Amino acid sequence: MIAAAITIAGGAICLAILLTLYRLAVGPDATDRVLALDTLVIETIALIVLGGIAFGIAMYFEAALLFAMVGFVTTVAFCKFLLRGNVIE
Amino acid sequence: MPMLIDALIAALILAGAFFLLVGALGLAKLPDMMRRLHGPTKATTLGIGALLIASMIYFSVARGTFSIHELLITLFLFLTAPVSAHMLAKAHILRATQEREQLPPTGQPSGWATLDDRRSDGM
Amino acid sequence: MRARLLPHPLLTVLVALVFVFLMNEVTPGVVVLGLILGFAIPLLTAPFWPGRPRLKAPLTVAEFMLVVLWDIIVSNIEVAKLILFRRGDSLRTRYVTVPLDLEAPEAIALLAGTITMTPGTVSADLSADGKALLVHCLDTGDPAATVAAIKARYERRLKRIFE
Asked: Does the keyword Disulfide bond apply (chain C) (predicted)?
């Protein structure tokens, strides 16, 4: 039952990534693209966690944690740049 | 492994994937930036939360190895999602000049922090 | 004396807990090492944390967390329904202003985060003097009721916790 659930969930997450990539490509503004990138990071974390369950490797969580942290800092840095014109003043 | 826990894990995985898909659908479908902000910030955090709880139960019960560090990622995402949403909203308010007239008044002597020139040192 | 050795008791507990979670096992060695880190890190970084918010009502914290968790689940289902079954431009979106009674910056930050995580609302901006919050609602028929709900459900409890 879990294997079937993982297959369906993997398909759903891939579809979600495609929808997010559409928004990333279409825009129209820079903030939309940053939001799409932020969502993409979260979907990647979901894929990593799903892979961890599928292959039974607990090691994947370090990767997911690092991804979460880097993704957050990236989003804040992008927003800071949009707000202020530079990142470190 | 008991059937019930098996079903619980499968249900949590499916629920997580469903909310992630809905969040991305909202991002692709809704017509303007502030509306799009609602989908990903909410739906994705619960989606990730459900997936991580599924993995927590899976590694604890099915494999017999105690596993709690997934909770850390969930907590971290719940703390950071509002912050990044707030930053994105501020960036949008600053950039969308034609939307500034739609903002309601603050009801205070000073304006909104993003647009107020007097004190623009904040985040 | 106690304040100098343990500048942030809650931070000590938090660092120890995060360390135990990261190591992913609860053994005496890990707990002791976590407590040592939780003791040393606040001591070394105390100059960077001048403000010391006090929690006045610890029981209210638990109540607040349960209310917010429940609201997060409900709000997710509501937003999912709105996204799936409504046309995007038929949503009655609008900005509302929430006047704040809270004064502690930590409390305002917590309120803004809570608003973003709960039913159909995103906190978008703060007024420059920190006395009003700009909130964007995804779908609301009665803005005054939304503001009243935010104030009654979250702000009242936060005020009890921090002030």
From this structure: no
Here the tokens at position C24 are 């992913």
- What would the pLDDT profile of A52-62 be if each residue is shown by its tens digit? 888 877 778 88
The pLDDT of C112-134, averaged and rounded, is 81
Instruction: Tell me which DSSP letter residue B64 carries.
Output: -
- Tell me the average pLDDT of chain C: 81
What is the rounded CA–CA span in Å between residue A64 and residue A69? 9
Residues spanned by the domain of B14:
3-97
Does B118 map to a domain? no
Residues 6+ apart with CB under 8 A from B51: A9, A46, A49, A50, B12, B13, B16, B17
Question: In which residue are the tokens 């800071």 written?
Answer: A80
Question: What Cα–Cα distance (Å) separates residue B67 from each residue in A27, A58, B19, B51, B60?
Answer: 40, 9, 24, 14, 5
On whether any CB of chain A is under 8 Å from the CB of B115, the answer is: no
> Which three-class secondary structure state does DSSP give residue B49?
helix
Yes or no: say if B4 and C86 are a contact pair by the CB < 8 Å rule. no
Average pLDDT, chain A: 86
pLDDT digit string, tens, across residues C66-103: 888 888 888 888 888 888 887 767 777 788 888 888 77
The pTM score is 0.85
Closest C-chain CA to B60: C24
Nearest-Cα distance to chain C for B29, in Å, is 7
**DSSP per residue, A2-54:** HHHHHHHHHHHHHHHHHHHHHHHHH-SSHHHHHHHHHHHHHHHHHHHHHHHHH
Q: What is the tally of structural domains in chain B?
A: 1
Q: Is residue A16 part of a domain?
A: yes
How far off is chain A from B94, nearest CA to CA, in Å?
7
Which residue from C58, C154, C77, C153 is spatially nearest to C110, judged by alpha carbons? C154
Phi, psi of C44 (to 5 degrees): -75, -30
Cβ-defined contact of C131 to B112 (cutoff 8 Å)? no
Query: Is residue B51 situated within a structural domain?
Result: yes
Answer yes or no: is B108 within a domain. no
Hey, what are A9's tokens? 């969930």
Q: Kindly give the pairing relationship between strand C94-99 and strand C132-137.
A: antiparallel
Residue whose entry in the numeric block shows the structure tokens 């910056």: C105
Strands C94-99 and C121-126, sheet pairing: unpaired
